[in-house]
Fold this protein.
Amino acid sequence: MDEFMLRALLAGIGMALAAGPLGVFVVWRRMAYFGDALSHAALLGVALGLVTGWSMNLTIAGICLAVAMLVTWLHSRPELPADAALGIFSHGALALGLIIAALADGVRVDLMAYLFGDVLAAGWVDVAWIWVGAIVVLGVIRRYWNDWVNATVHEGLATLDGVAVARMRLIFMLLTALVTAAALKVVGAMLITALLVIPPAAARPFASTPEGMALGAVLIGAVSAPLGLLVSYRWDLPSGPAIVLVACGFFGVSLLVRRKTTV
Amino acid sequence: MEPVREDPDPLLSARGLSVSRGGELLLRQVDLTIHAREIMTIIGPNGAGKSTLLSALLGLIPLSAGSVRQRPGLVVGYVPQRLRVDSVLPMTVARFIGLSNGRGELPRDLFVRLGCAGLLERPMHGLSGGETQRVLLARALSRNPDLLVLDEPAQGLDLAGEEQLHGFLEELRRERGVAALLVSHNLHFVMASANRVICLNRHVCCSGSPTAVRATPEFKLLFGDKVPGVGYYQHHHDHSHTSCGVVGEGEHG
């Protein structure tokens, strides 16, 4: 196997490991719009990285974390609906990123690569980033799993059970920011939310416990990535969209299963 | 009107509790004390701040003034007004109840008594309103609470279910010494089962034993002259906030 293919496979599978258990919470808590907002803001990180020459991975991660913290802070202020505030913020960051990229002289930005991902171009450093990130994310999720599930069902009940709900929310936002930053390389800004949302949705009909759904999401994600890469390699298609389409295929299959089991 | 009881160690007490949101004062200067082994019922019109008061007492929302003191080590079982578990979250009733204590160890006899022993393996999102209420109550009780806080627990219950619930609360109080603080709309049951009633309309209008409260002009202003106890009352919506507040403020509680 070509080395670039191996790297792409490892990156895709590492992504699925982290995106599955995090994605179930994105779906349960109806936070898909948050993933979208983060991925828009991530492009500001790309622009900053290009202009300043800072490490691209670190810059993107930094911007995503900063946006996540600002959004969490906005959540605690009732003046504006959360989604409106988020929209203003993420598109503001996106616009700023585009302007910075345009102002930077001599920088030829291949925006397509960041909009739709270019996992085949991932280097070993990128792969290492994704795996370190995935292991950190999995460790934190494991640590707080029960508290998160509890707070997802009802924040008031969880608070009385001794769960620090506000802190849990912040940690969840930060992890999502990290995964978003890592996923930018794999599927690109436009498709990051798909990676978080589709595998859990496809896993739902097969699961009867929260854990089962998270595990199913990991499996479906981890199969979608290599299959998508294979399709992309075989027919010379863009890799990010191919991965997402394969995941969509799994969701289609799960719809049929759902129909059978719910009747 | 309320006999002054010296309780050096109440379960929960609030002094001068105020809550505001977006510049609007939702609760003003509420004083309230819940003693061990008593059933206290909050009544009041829509928008009176009943749920807000419960949330504030439980520490779920910030106070803008005043203080709440809980007896150290107090265990509270809370039944929120509504719980909707989305069908996208796969969770059985047993798992939901187990989330609370983490042990997954459930008192079987309690479920049988609450009539939800058969529900344990059912998914949460498939429960009816009445079933959800029973499951919430079971979850609250699985923590072995000193105090039950119930936000309109009769929602989704039929009349028989509501009567059963009040009987059950009274049994818990007698047998296990569990105190209860609840919001109710059914004056008939309130008058029959509460030890103490608090009439709330963004502040405490009047409080005391059911008979004492019923005799106050504030009560009549809020709920009309129909004497509850016959299972029917007319809720007057033309009450005005200030007319009640002027009389009630600072004199009771």
Observations:
- The interface with chain A takes residues 21-22, 55, 58-60, 76, 78, 80, 83, 85-86, 88-92, 95-96, 99-100, 102, 123-124, 139 of chain B (CB under 8 Å).
- Strands of chain B lie at 12-21, 24-34, 39-43, 65-70, 76-79, 147-150, 179-183, 196-200, 204-208.
- Chain B is about 30% helix and 20% strand.
- Confidence is low (pLDDT under 50) at residues 228-253 of chain B.
